[in-house]
Amino acid sequence: MTDRFTQRLNQAMDLRNIRQSDFVKAAEEHGVKLGRSHVSQYVNGKTRPRPEIERFLAAVLGVDARWLAGEQVAFDEHPATFNDVEQTTNVEHRHVIEQHADGNVQEDIEQHNIVELMDFEHRDSIEHEDVEHEYGIEPKDVAAHDVQPSSLNISEPTHASAPHRSGQEHIMEPQFDDDVQDPSFIDVPSSVTPEEPKVRGRRTFAKSHKLDNVLYDVRGPVVNEAARMEAAGMHVMKLNIGNPAPFGFRTPDEVVYDMAQQLTDTEGYSASKGLFSARKAIMQYAQLKNLPNVGVEDIYTGNGVSELINLSMSALLDNGDEVLLPAPDYPLWTACVTLAGGKPVHYICDEQSEWYPDIDDMRAKITDRTKSIVIINPNNPTGALYPREVLEQIVDLAREHQLMIFSDEIYDRLVMDGLEHTSIASLAPDLFCVTYSGLSKSHMIAGYRIGWMILSGNKAIAKDYIEGLDMLTNMRICSNVPAQSIVQTALGGHQSVNDYLVPGGRIYEQREYIYDALNSIDGITAVKPKAAFYIFPRIDVRRFNIHDDEQFALDLLHDEKLLIVQGTGFNWKDPDHFRVVYLPRVEVLKGAVDKMTRFFSHYRQ
Ligand SMILES: Cc1ncc(COP(=O)(O)O)c(C=O)c1O
């Protein structure tokens, strides 16, 4: 750890006996936007907060904010208070109000703020301190009454998350069915590889502030830690990513064969929305799902649904526009709204009602700035499938408040128990809807990268927005053409995925097993999923004294070498859930449940 801020943050946390979760709690109490993952990144030196957040951290720690920032003052010379933080925030708030009142003033003030941030960033990015360490020179700039190594253990801050396993341990680890292990950790994230030595005065580059509040914990710090463990030779059992192929779900032969046949015909760019044959097949699929008013031109292919979520939020949102999103959600949605400058507003999905959206909560959260409602149906991470009545209520709400509807239906063909999926767009011919789906899950080709979005209903009201979509679609030129070439094959004829979803089929039997097994662990309860391949169990947090679920996920990883994703990674507010991907075979799931049972039998946070 080389950064002075990080070093001092860790020192002060040790001194004041403050844990990461204490910052999050304090932030909630003071209305400051600060998530667990942010704090974890600051503590681990992956990123540095903005000045106002630094002041807030200093106030929680009761240390001088300048000291925390790395300046040569005593750590307790002028301890920051929450008043300082609030005053700063108020000043910034006044700026915002003025910005709204007067367009010209807005520009001036915004620019002023940006300059301030840039100055700070610049100061931050010249790393003098490391040079001194590099050349074996003692830091001379520590003030006489600065915090000393002896009192605060300046040399090597310790972290709960740091791997500290002996080389022998992994040799002792029981192995589970090798063919179902997800190989996706072969790439150790660059953020966990050793840093290059730094040279005096070298300019470094920080990430954009647009990413400040963007989180994607499905591949976040816990996953990085798992990658580090694997790189150290340990065997980690991964129930964290909905990637069917590594769990033995093979792409239908016909799909692979047809792509191979067409490979030489798909070397060039296609039309930006995609090949006609692919879009025609998707259009016909839309007809079967009763989507109203859909022509070939209303279909856009993408490099997975992921690209299209990003693209459609970027085309829609001005700064501060609000989008209603489910909690829990598939976090890419929240991330893309934030990245586009929008404000994600989460409505609750109610565990007591099969995880259906709470319509009253949705209604209560609509404001003048709300532009659209997002639903994920079937849902990741809960596995819920929304019945027609629930969808109708959402449509009524959207109609009443003139909102657009975005419906992520990537799991629409993975439905069990004889239930049928209804596309919300089929109930809303008078509204403007965008429906997303693709082949990643239903055809087990997540790696080929092919998804699509379908515009339907009242397109006249979205003419300008559609121009924006077209512009961004043109700018990325086109989606993966070989993958487009098999859409027609995939969507027509026998759907082999259906065999997995009925009694005796893998997904069905794995769902039955995991649902019963999780519910038989003391302190764990779960609603039975109806679709997809995720389950989102509840943890009795009192029993286990859990107040930080990222820490829980790390502890489970370290103790049992089992990787799950904590519930807050899905924008679920409380630390009382986690997501399990039940794609592995039952024998492997049994091993995972044994690990969980053992862990929960003794775990107290
Ligand atoms: C709800 C949801 N939407 C979109 C995606 C991304 O899908 P794609 O592979 O098409 O980018 C996922 C992937 O897990 C998902 O769960």
UniProtKB/TrEMBL annotation:
Gene3D superfamilies: Aspartate Aminotransferase, domain 1 (3.90.1150.10), lambda repressor-like DNA-binding domains (1.10.260.40), Type I PLP-dependent aspartate aminotransferase-like (Major domain) (3.40.640.10). Keywords: Aminotransferase, Pyridoxal phosphate, Transferase. The keyword Calcium does not apply. Residues 36-68 form the HTH cro/C1-type domain. The keyword Ribosomal protein does not apply. It comes from the Bacteria. InterPro entries: Ala_Aminotransferase, Aminotransferase_I/II_large, Cro/C1-type_HTH, Lambda_DNA-bd_dom_sf, PyrdxlP-dep_Trfase, PyrdxlP-dep_Trfase_major, PyrdxlP-dep_Trfase_small. Coiled coil: none annotated. Its cofactor is pyridoxal 5'-phosphate. It is an enzyme of class 2 (transferase). GO terms for molecular function: DNA binding; L-alanine:2-oxoglutarate aminotransferase activity; pyridoxal phosphate binding. Pfam families: Aminotran_1_2. Its EC number is 2.6.1.2. Belongs to the class-I pyridoxal-phosphate-dependent aminotransferase family. This is alanine transaminase. It comes from Bifidobacterium italicum. The lineage of its organism: Bacteria, Bacillati, Actinomycetota, Actinomycetes, Bifidobacteriales.
